[in-house]
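Protein record

Derive tokens from sequence
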Amino acid sequence: MIPTDLFEFAYVPDWYVQLDELTEIILPESWRFKKPTCETKNFDTPILERYINLIFRKQSIDHNTAPDTLSAQGFFHIENERACFHTGLYTQRYKAVYACFERNKKQNSTLKWYFNGFCDEVSPNLKYIHPLPNKPYFPAMKNGVNFIPEWPIRVNVDHILGDEENLERIPSKIRKVKNLPLLLETAVELARRKSVIEPSIIVPQGYQNRLQYLLPVCLTNMVKPDLAMTLSVMDGYYLGNLSDT
């Protein structure tokens, strides 16, 4: 059993600095109350602070009540010298952000763990942790019409770029770049990651009595989509082609 309070679980140095650094790497949000009802020590990121404490509590409770060790590690990974949990937040490149801990070696502290900070999945702090903990799950939060954003998307690059009509849909300023296939696949992967945290960007549609999905893809601007990718449901993945719409 692990404590359900962050500060009972780990020694946390420079907490407010850690939160400020977190805001620098995650997708931009307003973390202040517009009309605070009372004064707080944390003026800049009080909403973010409450959110992290809430997620820590949820993941630790789910870890403690899991039916077996494997399931428990999916909520909150604790093994040897490392521990971490998925914050449910993402970087501006839509990489998951984790809260990371190591064994506490401070002699003046009785807590078992030391908070290392927040990092994305490619951090050295997570190098030897596999699989990484899952994203916090809230039953009330559902994606539209059973779309599964974790499924990979196989982009039919040869068909898209080998067809003159399809190629015309690519923005003209990048149509002749040498790495266009890689650019297209990278843009689709970023769009898939975005759909994990913003399921509302996915639009379901019917085609020949089958369900498909439209995924907006940004090639030249991270905010404004350049085209829509049609995702056909396959066996454990989606096949991506350019939309006719």
About this structure: The helical segments are 6-9, 15-25, 46-65, 69-75, 157-162, 164-167, 180-197. Strands lie at 10-11, 77-79, 82-90, 96-103, 113-120, 153-155, 203-207, 210-217, 227-233, 238-242.
